[in-house]
Amino acid sequence: MSRHTHGRGRFRRAPARRVVVALVMAGALGLSACEDAEDDATTAVAGDPSPTADATGKGGGGGKDDEPQPTATPTDDGEESEEGSDEESEDESTETSYAVEPPAPFKGLSRADVLITATESLLDEVIEEIRTVKGVETALAFSVGSASIGGRTLTIASVDPGTFRQFTPDVTARADFVWERVAGGELAVDTGFDKKLVDKADMVRLGPDEDSPEVHVGAIAPLIKRSAGTPAETPVIQVLVNEKRGEQIGIQEQNAILVDTGITTPSVLKKEFEKILGDRATMDTLALEFDTFGQTAVLTGQSVSEAVGTFTYTNGPDGTINPDQGWVKEFIRTETVPILGEVTCNKGALPQLRGAFTDIVAAGLIAEIKPEQYAGCYYPRYIGRDPSNGLSLHSWGIAVDLNVPTNLMGTQGDMHPQVVEIFKEWGFAWGGDWNYTDPMHFEMARVVRPGGS
Fold it and tell me: Which residues lie within the region annotated Disordered (predicted)?
């Protein structure tokens, strides 16, 4: 995307608030942060959606993978009950505390032609300027961030259920239960969401830390995809939460816009959008027209995002990406740490990485780390080298893979428990704790500084 200065000063920072400082990397379509392929990565959660009726009660539809499906609701004894049960559980009361007003009824559809994503919150006047561009039918502002869940990288959108529904596929937009569940504090996930990320009670931990909030999956439904209607369509958003949930997990407020360009070809409006937005936002064309221009990578969790930065990027060959060189120059460093020697990582993660290895040395555990089996830190690519799977945390340079041969995906591994504990004390989450284990993998989940700062 071309650089402009016209749009500078058109953004606002969200007010500081107490948030879960976690990379809510909701691992998009089921590939590990460290593995390039996984055979059943796109198996749907809790079974396939019902093929018999759509959300309006009419038969037919687009096949079972295109039909929304509610999940069962939790009960007091931990078992699940069908929707409509009068029983209310402890988990349900927790969801209720994050409930918002019931969604507005379905009023019609808008087409998700363009996704604009910014590194900071967009000013109301900027959003209004986008709405008034000739050729724009509708534009809706919402919040979005990348998140780490069980070692997968997903995009989570924090939305107003009543207005956002119009941009989803028809069968989802008309499914009242989807939007009621989201308004009630539950998650809606795309039909391709990896079932390994969900426990037996349909709960998902929204972050890599043990104290990250667990939220119930209320609905499984087709969400917004790129190049909708083509065989190559890929999900753009994998998880929906309401705005209260978004605030809880630290998603940057109002940093995205969905645009319906009506009969106008989206690329025709590109230069006009660039004049308004400047160089702090990117335009991603979702309509069937051409490959995406540029995209923006923003982590949820305000402190972590500030420490490691946000960047724009374009696609490279073989599932790699090309991050903005300004961000690379500012944040990526090659430095020396104990045991491993020279590493290339994000400067925001290096103090914690150095602190962890220093403590490992002090604990007499040097032999537990095999430097020759270190598989890297900064490696800008998609998970599994597949754009539909979201960015690997290695793209930010905030994850390391250690002792690879004996700590492969899906195994218990042989990582020393005290090594794991030291990394956790220094703010790293461990892949060995995930539903589908990845014991080689440690990723920065919260900001910890030497001396407790």
Answer: 37-105
Can you give the pLDDT at residue 9? Answer: 52
| Amino acid, single-letter form, for residue 105 | P
Q: Where are the domains of the chain?
A: 11-308, 319-452
* Of 82-86, 114-118, 191-195, 343-347, minimum mean pLDDT range: 82-86
Q: Tokens 């087709």 correspond to what residue?
A: 222
Burial category of 75 from C-beta neighbours within 10 Å (exposed 0-12, middle 13-18, buried 19 and up): middle
Please tell me the total number of residues recorded for the chain in this structure. Answer: 453
* Residue 244 near residue 161 (C-beta atoms within 8 A): no
Residue 78 structure tokens: 């931990």
CA distance 357 to 336: 11
CA 126 to chain centre: 25
Q: What is the pLDDT of residues 143-189, one digit of tens each?
A: 998 888 877 778 899 999 999 999 998 899 999 999 999 999 999 99
Rounded to whole angstroms, how far apart are CA atoms 279 and 277? 7
153 SS3 class = strand
- 67, 61 contact by CB (below 8 A): yes
* Domain 319-452 part of CATH 3.10.620: no
Closest CA relative to residue 400, chosen from 334, 338, 349, 329: 349
Are 427 and 303 within 8 A, CB to CB? no
**Phi, psi of 437, deg, nearest 5:** -65, 150
pLDDT at 231 over 60: no
Q: Is 425 strand, coil or helix?
A: helix
Give the three-state DSSP class for 142: strand
192 contact partners, CB below 8 Å, separation of at least 6: 29, 30, 42, 44, 235, 238
Report d(CA 256, CA 91) in Å as an integer. 31
Q: Name the more confident of 421 and 207.
A: 421
Output DSSP code: residue 340. T
Amino acid in position 410:
G
More confident residue, 179 or 446: 179
The SS3 call for residue 334 is strand
Among residues 58, 342, 96, the alpha carbon closest in space to that of 175 is found at 58
Region of poorest pLDDT, from 13-17, 226-230, 264-268, 331-335: 13-17
DSSP string, 16-84: P-----S--B--TTS--SS-S--TTTTPPTTSPPPSSB-TTS-B--S-GGGS-EEPPEE-TTS-EE-TT
